[in-house]
Amino acid sequence: MDLLDRLLGYDRFTTERVLALCRDLPDADLDRDFDIGNRTIRRTVDHMLAAMELWTGLMAGERRGRSEPTNAPIDDLLARHAAVHDRFERVVREIAASGRLDDTFTDHYGIPQSYGATILQVMAWHNVHHRSEILHMLQRLGVPDLPDGDPQEWEHLTGRI
Question: Which of 8, 41, 95, 145 has its CA 20 to 30 Å from the CA of residue 16?
């Protein structure tokens, strides 16, 4: 397994795991206002997915704006995550296979970005950051047995090591 396989597998698995922890929460908890990030679990998840959709589209050569918050149930957000991660993975693998990680594209602000740094931005910074915020909100809600959410935990839980 190469580093890209690890990043993609870890990102998908860990986000799905965190979202699964939210499944049994009542809407009041999903929409409870916290003094962190996007303020609620639901808005934070919406934001994560909108960012993945945006960056995937931009890397694929599409010009489109951010999607609006959906206020969707967790199961719908899980399905949206599966779809956006599938597409993100296809685009990322095509870029890597064609040797374009150091090539650039123009983002929605007109700024050149490398494909490689954008891929890392989405998985290794943005998603990790917001998953941590969600885990913090879950901890404050008293949800027990929260995961660390780190790559080594992913390897052990999925039998890769």
Answer: 95
